[in-house]
UniProtKB/TrEMBL annotation:
Keywords: Membrane, Transmembrane, Transmembrane helix. The lineage of its organism: Eukaryota, Metazoa, Ecdysozoa, Arthropoda, Hexapoda. This is Xyloside xylosyltransferase 1-like. SUPFAM superfamilies: Nucleotide-diphospho-sugar transferases (SSF53448). The keyword Transport does not apply. One of its GO terms (cellular component) is endoplasmic reticulum membrane.
Length: 357
């Protein structure tokens, strides 16, 4: 009898130990600390700024900066963007940059360079791409088969989906953030972009501007033949903002500028469901969708089925310039997709289009 009691006690202890370690592991996993260096170098510049204006809200800007060569175009785009944003903005910005070890060195030199002559104070933080991709492997695994042109290796796949797992990377006290491509040019204050959070629908987790080419008309070709949908059709109205989801067409989304309500994403019960393999596989099948543009394919698909989760921004917040589709089978309708009547806040030189600001 005693032996059985002993066995039960041992069993209970084992269970307790397993739970303890499981819990410890989980917490560690979620609050993973990312090392950042030289983040306080700009404390000096804080003096120029009134405390109330610095601390009222965080202006968190996320960038991905990997595989940078000494002379690569990305290197120049990156420094230009940092300088450009600081030039036109009135708020205290925190740059959060996802880097590999080589890009980190280059970025550090560039931040230091910019901070030596910038009139605006700012801070920066680095996050290692290997750590970042490791904590979103599950997301990448679900999405890569459907939204990557040629699934690759190492962290290269993760690069296309980082905005979707950013809530696991960003410090827990970060409530809102924007994630940007490096091929952007801000014509106006980044504060205007952050003000868009105030207009978010009560369920909206992300904010994105429309894709300005017929790429999703192309992707939905088969689906459109089988139904009378307006998904994939151009916006047939001057304003795309409406109380109705997707009135008069839906061009899909472009992920060059992504607004993230990180707090809502963390608390959302729906979000992990829509990112599950079963839901993604179902949506892809339903819309006969084969994409190649990474996270923006997922946002677009989400827009079909769960429009309340995404806030559509006006085109001026991500005025894309790529005209590739105009010369590849869509010359007749291209301009209808490409039009943007809204005042331009952000220009996006996608597909290597030169920005003539
Ligand atoms: C931090 O900045 C200082 C001064 O610019 C520099 O000497 C140092 O090497 C930097 N630290 C690291 C870890 O890069
Ligand atoms: C804080 O910012 C506002 C505008 O953003 C400006 O008008 C005001 O002068 C600033 N306050 C201080 C103390 O600098
Ligand atoms: C930022 O402003 C400075 C001073 O007006 C200007 O010389 C520089 O070209 C601007 N940089 C960018 C990237 O817009
Ligand atoms: C800072 O960057 C600019 C633009 O790339 C470059 O022309 C300049 O020489 C750099 N300054 C320093 C001190 O490295
Ligand atoms: C699509 O529209 C056509 C013409 O308006 C109509 O005849 C047809 O029934 C519609 N099909 C579906 C599936 O709604
Ligand atoms: C735009 O939508 C209206 C009604 O929603 C329709 O009457 C009109 O034909 C549409 N125009 C185009 C160019 O699709």
């Amino acid at each position: 009898m005693n032996r059985i009691k002993l066995l039960i006690v041992i069993n209970l202890i084992t269970v307790a130990i397993v739970f303890f370690f499981y819990d410890t592991f989980k917490i560690k996993h979620q609050n993973k600390k990312f090392s950042s260096i030289n983040e306080s170098i700009n404390a000096l510049y804080l003096k120029n700024f009134a405390e109330e204006n610095v601390t009222r809200i965080d202006y968190n800007v996320w960038l991905i900066y990997t595989k940078v060569g000494v002379d690569s175009p990305l290197k120049f785009k990156f420094q230009n963007l940092i300088e450009n944003i600081l030039n036109v903005s009135t708020v205290f910005i925190k740059f959060h940059v996802i880097v590999d070890s080589n890009s980190r060195k280059i970025a550090l030199a560039q931040f230091t360079n910019v901070s030596s002559h910038s009139k605006n104070p700012f801070k920066w933080y680095f996050y290692d791409i290997n750590e970042v991709s490791n904590i979103m492997l599950d997301i990448v695994e679900v999405l890569t088969p459907h939204f990557s042109s040629k699934p690759g290796t190492y962290y290269s796949d993760a690069l296309f989906y980082i905005s979707l797992g950013l809530y696991r990377v960003a410090p827990a006290d970060q409530d809102i953030a924007v994630m940007l491509d490096c091929d952007l040019y801000f014509k106006d204050d980044i504060l205007l972009l952050f003000k868009e959070f105030d207009w978010f629908k009560s369920d909206a987790l992300f904010g994105l501007a429309p894709e300005l080419t017929p790429v999703y008309r192309h992707v939905l070709h088969k689906y459109r033949l089988s139904t009378n949908t307006t998904f994939g059709s151009y916006y047939n109205s001057t304003s795309i903002i409406s109380h109705l989801p997707h009135p008069n067409g839906f061009q899909g989304y472009n992920s060059g500028v992504v607004l993230l309500n990180l707090r809502r994403i963390r608390e959302s019960k729906v979000y992990s469901k829509v990112l599950s393999k079963s839901v993604v596989d179902y949506l892809v099948q339903k819309y006969m969708f084969k994409g190649h543009l990474g996270d923006q394919d997922f946002y677009t698909l989400l827009g079909y089925e769960y429009p309340n989760l995404i806030q559509t921004l006006e085109c001026g917040f991500n005025r894309q310039l790529c005209t590739w589709w105009k010369y590849h089978g869509y010359s007749d309708v291209f301009d209808k997709y490409f039009k943007c009547k809204h005042p331009i806040i952000v220009l996006h030189g996608n597909c290597n289009t030169k920005i003539l600001s």
